[in-house]
Amino acid sequence: MFDLETVATISGHFSIVGWVLAGVYQLYVSALDGTADSFSPFFLVGYVVGDISNVVGCFWGSQMGFQKIISICSLVTDSLMALQFIYFRRKQSLQPRRSAALLRPVAYASMVAVSMASPLEPPSKIGGSTQQLLIGQSFAWLAETFYVGAVVQQALKNYEKKSTGAVSRLLFIFDLFGSLSTLLTIFVTSRTFGSTTESFDFLATELPYLVGAALCAAMDVVLLYQYRLYPCHLVVLDGYQTISVEPPTKYGSI
């Protein structure tokens, strides 16, 4: 019914949507909570540094169009999450939370940018010098190392606190969706080449992203399982005391 390039393009767009929704929705939930303490600082640092490395790796390594779009969108949303974390850490008193409304335009703008993005070019034209591709792939491995390390740190933080805090499980559901879509896109695309040699060369170039997406997907499953193991508590600062309360039902069940 669909040719392989069409399937690859569709799954690539699904991957973009998954990664964008993951970051934007968590920004919205953290704004509602007024806290980002449920995140491990290493998780956020790992994601931002990984995003920077990923942007370099994608553009220097002549990666597919959907990977370049994801790298930029992820850098924007993860940087905003890191800034949000710093802001709430510095904020010592409970104040009316009006920042959630300000994030809605960010969500809309991100989705419009994705929908208006140019069609994903077929990756059959992998160009660039050998040195440039080597640099790009080195940064890709660095990015995936930071990504996997970040989710491991978050899982360890949840384990130590025996709670998933105010981190929405939808963050990891969308992450899992994005990782699986990325894997599907790469594998389907590898079948569009005219020869087996070209297919293997393409998969070799995409190896960091294959390994990273597979490991991140596995860790997302672990993190989602933690939502079944641990209660979801929010941390609310009340003067000088920290009180643990049950989350409101409007987003606590998500």
Describe this structure in words.
InterPro entries: LAAT-1, PQ-loop_rpt. This is Putative vacuolar amino acid transporter YPQ2. Keywords: Membrane, Transmembrane, Transmembrane helix. Its main location: membrane. It comes from Wickerhamiella sorbophila. With 254 residues, the chain is mainly alpha-helical. It has one domain (4-252). The protein is 72% helix and 4% strand. It has nine helices and two strands. It has helices spanning 4-33, 41-60, 65-90, 99-115, 130-161, 169-190, 196-205, 207-229, 249-252; strands spanning 234-238, 241-245. Strands 1-2 form a two-stranded antiparallel sheet. Helix 1 (4-33) packs parallel to helix 3 (65-90), helix 2 runs antiparallel to helix 3 (65-90) and helix 6 packs antiparallel against helix 8. Mean pLDDT is 76; it is low at 96-127 and 233-254.
Notable characteristics:
254 residues, mainly alpha, two-stranded antiparallel ribbon, 9 helices, 2 strands, 4% strand, elongated, disordered C terminus
Task: Give the number of DSSP strands.
Answer: 2
Elements, N to C (H/E): HHHHHHHHEEH
Separate helix tally: 9
Arrangement of strands in the largest sheet: 1-2
Protein structure class:
mainly alpha
Rough shape? elongated
From the alpha-carbon coordinates, what is the Rg to the nearest angstrom? 19 Å
Strand content: under 5%
Kindly state the percentage of residues in helix: over 70%
- Which spans have pLDDT < 50 for at least 5 consecutive residues? 96-127, 233-254
Mean pLDDT score, rounded? Answer: 76
Largest sheet: 2 strands, antiparallel
- Cα-to-Cα separation, first versus last residue: 36 Å
Count the domains: 1
